[in-house]
């Protein structure tokens, strides 16, 4: 049974470690939420270990710099991990047979801000799919849709190129508008018969990394906080840790969320069934 809570305070004593989403919980991509930094500071003041986990398709240092630009400080958390960091480390070190078989030449589906994924990679970056051995998928620009890259993806499918997806999110909300993410492109590619390796939430590898960074805190004392059932909550379920769904994020419209925090509980049950994910708690916003 999901418990609706008015704030984190009533359950705070049950947890020593926190794994917290960024977009939709701490900021909307353009501005920080007014209550976000004070809540992080309160967690640290209470002696909690705080980790940030983002499905941003960029190295962690790039996201940390963005957080500083938004008014946060490095001491607001103990570590910051991203799906892009996880993907980059696998691409660079080739730790398993799947990566070792990728080949040398990579084609980036992404923006200039995503090029940190390419630093120190073996092989060459190419600018034509016909020259590539594999795709690195970091997503497309705001305002674009799957149709903008469908011809490229179909060309890559015809060539049998594997894809590394550096952000499993399908959608985010920026400035009140839904925007397509890399995960939606990867889902299309996989549905059409392509091979995809995902990094980030909800996949278990990145949770194992985060739990290791929490200095041995038992899973029963770790709480994940995020706004996405498909990623944050499903990932927490798979990792065996409790979770909080923030209703004011990506699901706000589907939940018919009102400004006072009211939401449609039937709609939530339907979304949970659809995504096969269940939070421990539901909270209007991160406070």
UniProtKB/TrEMBL annotation:
PANTHER family: 4-NITROPHENYLPHOSPHATASE-RELATED (PTHR19288), OS08G0542600 PROTEIN (PTHR19288:SF90). This is HAD family hydrolase. One of its GO terms (cellular component) is cytoplasm. GO terms for molecular function: phosphatase activity. InterPro entries: HAD-like_sf (IPR036412), HAD-SF_hydro_IIA (IPR006357), HAD-SF_hydro_IIA_hyp3 (IPR006356), HAD_sf (IPR023214). NCBIfam families: HAD-SF-IIA-hyp4. SUPFAM superfamilies: HAD-like. It comes from Elstera litoralis.
């Amino acid at each position: 049974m999901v418990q609706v809570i008015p704030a984190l305070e009533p359950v705070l004593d049950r947890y020593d470690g926190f794994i917290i989403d960024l977009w939709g919980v701490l900021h909307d991509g353009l501005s920080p939420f007014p209550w976000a930094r004070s809540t992080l500071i309160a967690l640290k003041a209470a002696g909690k270990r705080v980790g940030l986990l983002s499905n941003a398709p960029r190295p962690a240092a790039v996201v940390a710099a963005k957080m500083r630009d938004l008014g946060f400080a490095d001491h607001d958390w103990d570590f910051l991990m991203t799906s892009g960091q996880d993907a980059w480390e696998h691409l660079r070190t080739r730790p398993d047979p799947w990566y070792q078989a990728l080949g040398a030449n990579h084609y980036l589906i992404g923006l200039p801000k995503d090029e940190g994924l390419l630093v120190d990679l073996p092989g060459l970056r190419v600018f034509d799919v016909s020259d590539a051995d594999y795709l690195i998928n970091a997503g497309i620009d705001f305002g674009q849709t799957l149709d903008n890259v469908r011809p490229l993806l179909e060309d890559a499918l015809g060539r049998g190129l594997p894809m590394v997806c550096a952000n499993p999110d399908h959608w985010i909300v920026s400035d009140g508008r839904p925007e397509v993410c890399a995960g939606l492109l990867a889902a299309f590619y996989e549905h059409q018969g392509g091979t995809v390796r995902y990094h980030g939430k909800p996949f278990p590898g990145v949770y194992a990394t985060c739990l290791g960074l929490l200095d041995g805190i038992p899973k029963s004392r770790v709480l994940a906080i995020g706004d996405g059932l498909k990623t944050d909550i499903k990932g927490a379920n798979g990792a065996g840790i409790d979770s909080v769904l923030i209703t004011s994020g990506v699901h706000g419209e589907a939940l018919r969320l009102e400004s006072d925090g009211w939401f449609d509980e039937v709609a939530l049950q339907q979304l949970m069934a659809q995504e096969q994910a269940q939070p421990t708690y539901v909270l209007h916003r991160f406070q």
